[in-house]
Amino acid sequence: MFSNFTYHNPTKIVFGKGTIAKLPELVPNGSKVLIAYGGGSIMKNGVYDQVKAALGGFETVEFGGIEPNPRFETCLKAVDLVQREQVDFILAVGGGSVLDGVKFIAAAALFEGDDKWSILEGAPVKQAIPLGSVLTLPATGSEMNPASVISRESTKQKQAFFSPHVFPKFSILDPETTYSLPPRQIGNGIVDTYSHVLEQYMTVPVGAQIQDRWAEAIFKTLIEVGPKALENPTDYDVRANLMWAATCALNGIIGVGVPQDWATHGIGHELTAEFGLDHGQTLAVVFPALLRHQKEAKRAKLLQYAERVWGLTGESDDEKIDKAIDLTEAFFRSVGVPTKLSDYGIREGIEVIEERLSKANFRRGVDGAIGAKEAGEILAMCR
Hints:
Elements: E1 12-15, H1 23-26, E2 32-36, H2 41-44, H3 47-54, E3 59-63, H4 72-85, E4 89-94, H5 96-108, E5 131-135, E6 147-152, E7 157-162, E8 170-173, H6 183-201, H7 209-231, H8 236-249, H9 263-275, H10 279-293, H11 299-308, H12 317-334, H13 351-359, E9 363-364, E10 370-371, H14 372-380
């Protein structure tokens, strides 16, 4: 059944060439701005210089070194800086990991409790420092949603929190900022985007035709432009479509009124925490195995996916479903992301993940169909 829903997204998107120059119109006048970024690639591709020039009329401080899969320990250092410098606006410049880190920093800086990790364990976020973003890596959709995922190195945990207080006030999306990204990051971003759509689409039919067709449009766009983004990194239209696809995949619009899954992400987070795999790599490994494991439960949507997205006809339903899963896995590999744990040199040690998920009472999927036991079975199929 198509469920009731309320949809509200307050983030302003400023899209296109040269839009970093619009920062003075978007950041509140008189703000003291923290510019937060990752490993320093923005220094090499000119984005840092554009941001600094645009914010010339503002007092700014900087915090660099936010990692892929941002670490709790690193974010706490930024929280100290924000509080010490009395920052009142935070600008994330980078990809989804920088944005996720900034969302946590913005919430933690005003959090009343001493245990900041409790935010990731469900403690209510009542306020946050306003934030915006200059996106340089299309992948997570964090530029237009209220979600953040943070890793804690000391305990090998990777957890998410959600709060309307950390919706970005604005996000600038200039496709030209993505031209210099290494192929590994582009490939991971394509898989991440595709997986976001799968998590919201690959469940059971509920008659939500608009959401299904929107999701299928994103799938088909990624299949078309994904390989082109790697072949010709400076094709503006290709990068623009890829960037907008990543945003639309997780800004909430395709998920309204429909059941969602998110088991693949939950299992993938554990692979990152245990083995240090990139987020996109974990999704490429887990999703094909999960679809095979859940083939009967997801049969109707898998068949719809096979016919509408991959254009499969003239075969039995089982053959179409099997081929659609194979084509999905092949697509992940075609953008440079391996799909087996053995491809990453992982041949043992996955049992600890099932144990950890069991202790955490892991339960994802439609109607909680995937628990720790099922996750262990899926991981065994990923070898």
